[in-house]
Amino acid sequence: MLLAIDVGNTHTVFGFWNGRLWQPVFRFSTPNLGTEDEIFARLRALETNDFKLNQVSRIAIASVNPMVDSDLQRLATECLNVPHVHLKSKKVDVIPNLYEPAEAVGADRIANSLGALALFTGPIIIVDFGTATTFDCIDSEGRYLGGAILPGPETLMEALTSKTAKLPRVPIETPERAIGRSTKESLQSGLVLGYSGSIRTILFEILKELPAAQVICTGGLAPSIQAMVPEIGEYHANLTLDGMMIWVEKLAN
What we know:
The protein is α/β, with parallel strands linked by helices. The protein has helices at residues 36-45, 69-80, 107-117, 153-162, 183-209, 222-226, 239-252; strands at residues 2-7, 11-17, 22-29, 58-63, 84-86, 124-129, 132-138, 144-151, 214-218. Strand 1 (2-7) and strand 2 (11-17) form a beta hairpin. Helix 1 (36-45) packs across helix 2 (69-80).
């Protein structure tokens, strides 16, 4: 069984591939992951009759947060005693990469691109809603072109509430109306409607350069925003994990 660990700045996803699908998939807070022993204990507590940690035969790690990398590597070598591979963009030869410099693109963005190419032919635009929202673009020849990055909706919420005395955090949910009749509704109107407008504007400009591209999305916050952005087609919850598995298979061949 492959354990794929996708490390973001806010959340870390642990996906277990059972040969047919990712099951189970766990989502933990990255700042609160803890040591390798604590991660192991947390996963152990989630074991069921259908899922045992001793079934893991290898681990793949894609990380944008170096602070937790050594703990995850020790999870593989000391707690689970299985081989692991750290997927890094500077070693990428699994997809033609036109980014400059090529090693600067995040491993999660390469994984998203590999996952998307397994589902569609280019051109493709992948929108990944996380701590940052990333746009990754693939041309008709299957080459990674680059894209765009902007703060995610929760990051914007954090910036707003940390800089004001009275504005509270509110759920990232589509408001019933644009004219908010409470502070909660007003914040949701500004954040969700304003954010979806930003997404649509960026897609509008990208589609000028990459016309007829298929637009798909992933990321934990995608369902909250997707309905407000009609340009986005399919949602693929495990796109990054899919791409990580493909990456591992390409490295093995």
